[in-house]
Write a structure and sequence with these properties.
The complex is a heterodimer.
Chain A (H helix, E strand, L loop, with lengths): L3 E4 L2 E4 L5 E7 L7 E6 L6 E5 L3 E2 L7 E6 L2 E6 L9 E6 L7 E2 L3 E5 L1
Chain B lengths: L2 E5 L2 E3 L5 E8 L8 E6 L5 E7 L6 E3 L7 E6 L4 E6 L8 E8 L10 E4 L3 E5 L2
Parallel strand pairs in B: 2-11
Antiparallel strand pairs in B: 1-3, 3-8, 4-5, 4-9, 5-6, 7-8, 9-10, 9-11
Classes of the chains: A mainly beta, B mainly beta.
Chain lengths: 108, 123
C-alpha cells in the first residue's frame, strides 16, 4: 500500500505569509496527487489535482508542484479564510485511494 | 447545481447494521464513479469504497471488505452503503463524493462532496 506522509502536521502562520505543505509518498505516484482543504464541520474541498492543476474557482494564490514521491502545496499569501486543515490524496494505486494524515494550519 | 445529500446515519450497537444513502442531483449521476469517504471524530479522511458508473466494478478499503457493500441505483440517482457487522472503529462521518472526471475509465479525484452523515457504533 502507498502511504502519504504530510509535513508539518501542524503549522502556525500569519495573514500574508507564504506557506508550504509537503506530501511524501512511500513510492512513486507520478503526478496522481490532489490537495483538499477542509474547514471544521464542513466537507473537504478540492484545490489542486494532477499535482499542479488548479480546480475551477480556486484562488490563484494556491499552487501545487511535484512528481514521483515529493509534492508541495503552496499558498502565496495567506488569507483569513485559508486557515483550515489540508489533505493530500493519491490515485496512483487506483482503484484504491489513500489520503495523507492532514496538516492543520492555524493563525499565529 | 450539483448536490449530494447523505442520510441513514445514527447510533447502532456493535455487530449491527446500517444502510447509508446518498441522493444526487444537478448532474448525470450515471456518468460518474462515486465513492464513500469517512472521517472518524477528530481524525483524517479515509476512503472507504468506490463504484463504477454502471456498478460493474466495486472496490473497498481492506478494513471494510466483507462487511460493507457499495451499490447504486442510476434510475433513482442514488448511492448506497450497506454496513454490516459494525465495529466501534467504524464510528465516523460518512461522505459520498463524486469523481472529477465524467465517463472516467478509472476512479479520479473528488470534486463534489455531500455534507456527511454521522454513524456512531456504541453499546
Amino acid at each position: 500500500d502507498i502511504q502519504l506522509t504530510q509535513s508539518p502536521s501542524f503549522l502556525s502562520a500569519s495573514v500574508g505569509d507564504r506557506v508550504t505543505i509537503t506530501c511524501r509518498a512511500s513510492q512513486g505516484i507520478s503526478s496522481y496527487l490532489a490537495w483538499y482543504q477542509q474547514k471544521p464541520g464542513k466537507a473537504p474541498k478540492l484545490l489542486i489535482y494532477a499535482a499542479s492543476t488548479l480546480q475551477s474557482g480556486v484562488p490563484s494564490r494556491f499552487s501545487g508542484s511535484g512528481s514521483g514521491t515529493e509534492f508541495t502545496l503552496t499558498i502565496s499569501s495567506l488569507q483569513p479564510e485559508d486557515f483550515a486543515t489540508y489533505y493530500c490524496q493519491q490515485l496512483n494505486s487506483y482503484p484504491l485511494i489513500t489520503f495523507g494524515q492532514g496538516t492543520r494550519l492555524e493563525i499565529k | 447545481e450539483v448536490q449530494l445529500v447523505e442520510s441513514g446515519g445514527g447510533l447502532v450497537q456493535p455487530g449491527g447494521s446500517l444502510r447509508l444513502s446518498c441522493a444526487a442531483s444537478g448532474f448525470t449521476f450515471s456518468s460518474y464513479w462515486m465513492s464513500w469517504v469517512r472521517q472518524a471524530p477528530g481524525k483524517g479522511l479515509e476512503w472507504v469504497a468506490n463504484i463504477k458508473q454502471d456498478g460493474s466494478e466495486k472496490y473497498y478499503v481492506d478494513s471494510v471488505k466483507g462487511r460493507f457493500t457499495i451499490s447504486r441505483d442510476n434510475a433513482k440517482n442514488s448511492l448506497y452503503l450497506q454496513m454490516n457487522s459494525l465495529r466501534a472503529e467504524d464510528t465516523a462521518v460518512y461522505y459520498c463524493a463524486r469523481d472529477l472526471t465524467i465517463f472516467g475509465v478509472v476512479p479520479s479525484y473528488f470534486d463534489y462532496w455531500g455534507q456527511g452523515t454521522l454513524v456512531t457504533v456504541s453499546s
